[in-house]
Structures are given as C-alpha cells and as structure tokens.
Design goal:
The chain contains eleven helices and 16 strands. With 357 residues, it is an alpha/beta fold.
C-alpha cells in the first residue's frame, strides 16, 4: 500500500514487558557471579543500581559461555545466538521515558517508540541497541558516495561497509539509459534511492516491508531533505502496479537457517524470496529496462548455502539474461576481533545487471 504521513503503519520496537514477572534483583550488594548463574538457569535479573552493573554482568556472562574453541562460521553463529537468548533475560526499568538506574544514557527513542507507556521493563541488550541507534540517529552516519550523512531510523538497516555502494555508484555514472523512474525494493535507510537521485533519476518508488524504514524515509521527505520519492509499505513491490526503467534490489546475503527477529531479518533470506522477487520484477520492468541486483558470494564461501540464487534464476528461470556482472573485494575486518574472518580474503560483493529475455 502507498504510505501517507497521516497513516499509522505501526512501529517495530523491542517488546516491552508490562505484565508482572518474577525477577532477581541486582544491586551493589549482589555478587555478579550470582546474577550470571541466575541468568543461565533461566531467571530474569533486574538491574537496580547503576547502568554499568548491567555491562559488567554481560561481560561476565560472555566469559562464562566462552568454552567452545571452534571458530567456524556456524559455531560462532550458534554461540552468539545462545548468548543473545540468555542475555535478554537481564532487564532494566524504563519510567517516564527514562532508565531508572543511575548514570544511564538518555535515549530519545523511549518517548518516540513508547508514547503510551509510563513504566515498563526492557532487556538490557535491547536498551543497548536503542542507545546505539539513538546515537547514529542524532549524530548521523557519513556515507562516502553521497558526500553527506544519513540519519537512520531505529531498526532500519544502514551500511557500515561501502564496497557495494561504490560498485553501484560506478555503474550509475556510466548508465546512459532512460532515467524517468526507478524502483528501490527494500529501501532501508534510503542510500540507494539517494544515489539514484544524485545520478539524475527523476522519480523513485521506494518500498519496504519494515514500517520503520518507511517512517524514517518519510521524515526526510517532511523535512524537505528528500524529494521525488514515493513510499510504499509492504512486501517486495508493496502493491505498486507501475513499471520502471530501473529496478534495484539489495537483498539479504545469507540464507535463513532459523527464526530471527528485529533488524536481523534484513540479513537473511528464506528460500522463496528470490523466486517471488524475480517473478514480480518481470511485471514491473519497463521495455529495455534493467534489473540491478546487489549481492555477495559470502554464503557460498562460508558454506552457508550450496546455491547462488541469482545464478539459479539465470540457469533455470528463463526470464532474464545477464548483461553485466561487476565485482569488488571487501576490506579485511578489524585485527582486534576474535571471530574467524579468514573468508573475507575471498569475499566479493557483486553487482548483477539483468535484462528480460
């Protein structure tokens, strides 16, 4: 459906705990090891004194859980998921849109995301995410290809790596086709749409199934920081019925193995995503139009998937042909990380340009 600023479409936010639950209170008189043990055994622990106490508990919990030396991608992922599950039982109270503990950060999202709630509990890691997101939103994130900052809305994906944006920018600079319209499927924080406008496209149809992405983009528009963008909230093409000269899709790069929630949904694709997208895209591509897919070989080299979804479509779909494939290697990760990033040596971001057969 098309979004208008007067239409409430809901907000993705961490689930507030407003019902009565049994908790183990933690303050200065409690041993951290006791709180960690309670969390591992399945109890909720409520931090009562300082924000820093929660940080100490999480640090101790992480050390307690680090017993597996296997650094494979899959094992690292499983370890992170176990830590995430247990750590979300560590809670903080929010009262009158502020954290109740001492020396806590001020987080503006509480008032924006929970206007109807006076007092509630949130998992400590969720509060950390809200705090980080608030800092990005207030201070902005500089995007080199745009030569300016963006201000990403909470729970909206925004890039922290830029190789795929550089590839897209290089392609747009040498693109000489019709620039009347483009569709940005899964607009996220809006970077690809901004690149399209920067390179002369007249009108952008921006869609996203995440309401926070649509709300974030609507704020750019309402503040007159962005124009010639029509927003549609919904799955893939979100009910838009027109055609475009260019369709751009930066899908998740990793296959879904188990249920994920929140912003992590933007990182994983289910087995039906690409077949559905390719079928719908064919109906929205104008004559002589081009389909741009931004992807990566990460799933292949990490052995998380045994098929490349774009190659599968080109081989078996009989709807598109490859016009061009651009690739670029990625920068190595931080030397300080304990995670195995050896696969980065072979990782390539990919820009596929397809046309209809």
């Amino acid at each position: 459906m098309k979004y208008s600023k007067d239409q409430y479409i809901g907000i993705n936010r961490p689930e507030a705990i407003i019902s009565e639950i049994d908790v183990v209170g933690f303050d200065g008189g409690t041993e951290i090891s006791y709180a960690v043990e309670a969390l591992i055994e399945g109890y909720y622990v409520l931090v009562l004194d300082f924000f820093s106490s929660g940080l100490k508990i999480l640090s101790s919990l992480k050390r307690e859980l680090q017993t597996n030396e296997d650094t494979s991608y899959q094992k690292q992922r499983e370890a992170r998921e176990r830590f995430q599950k247990i750590s979300n039982r560590l809670l903080l109270e929010v009262d009158q849109h502020r954290l109740s503990v001492k020396k806590a950060p001020r987080i503006g999202w509480f008032k924006i995301l929970y206007p109807e709630l006076e007092t509630f509990l949130l998992p400590f890691p969720q509060v950390q995410g809200l705090n980080s997101s608030w800092q990005w939103y207030k201070k902005g994130s500089y995007i080199p290809v745009l030569h300016k900052k963006i201000y990403p809305w909470y729970a909206t994906y925004f890039p922290t790596r830029y190789e795929h944006l550089d590839l897209f920018e290089d392609y747009l600079k040498q693109y000489h086709g019709d620039k009347t319209s483009a569709i940005d499927v899964g607009v996220g924080s809006g970077v690809l749409s901004m690149q399209l406008l920067k390179n002369g496209f007249k009108n952008i149809i921006a869609t996203d199934s995440n309401p926070n992405a649509i709300l974030g983009m609507s704020h750019y528009i309402s503040k007159k920081l962005l124009k010639n963008v029509d927003l549609y909230h919904g799955d893939l093409f979100a009910g838009y019925e027109g055609k475009a000269n260019l369709i751009v899709f930066n899908p998740p790069w990793m296959p879904l193995k188990r249920e994920v929630k929140g912003i992590d949904k933007a990182m994983y694709y289910d087995e039906q995503l690409f077949p559905r997208f390719f079928e719908q895209a064919a109906a929205h591509l104008a004559e002589n139009g081009k389909l741009i897919m931004i992807f990566s070989n990460l799933a292949e080299i990490s052995q998380a998937a045994n098929k490349h979804p774009i190659k599968e479509e080109l081989t078996h779909g009989k709807r598109y042909r490859k016009e061009l494939l651009l690739t670029q290697s990625v920068a190595m990760g931080s030397a300080k990380t304990k995670r195995d990033l050896s696969h980065r040596e072979d990782e390539l971001v990919e820009l596929w340009i397809l046309t209809k057969i």
